[in-house]
Amino acid sequence: MNDLELIFSMLGEASTTEIAKNKDAQGFVENKQVAKLGGSVAGSARKDLEQKSGKKVSTTRNYLSLSEKKKLV
What we know:
By secondary structure, the chain is mostly helical. It has one domain. The protein is built from three helices and no strands. The radius of gyration is 15 Å and the shape is flat.
């Protein structure tokens, strides 16, 4: 995971939180709908960046390097 993947993930989470607060979402069903809306905000932003930059945001690599993972253990 790279910096942009983390940023778009955070955007989705923050968008979902803001929408849930504004709609006063209660219960699983309402929060599931809100999560889809928040995810679509981040998804649209990611697609827009990919189109304008000509590069994919998503990668197959992990964010931490192998040496950093060993330090955490």
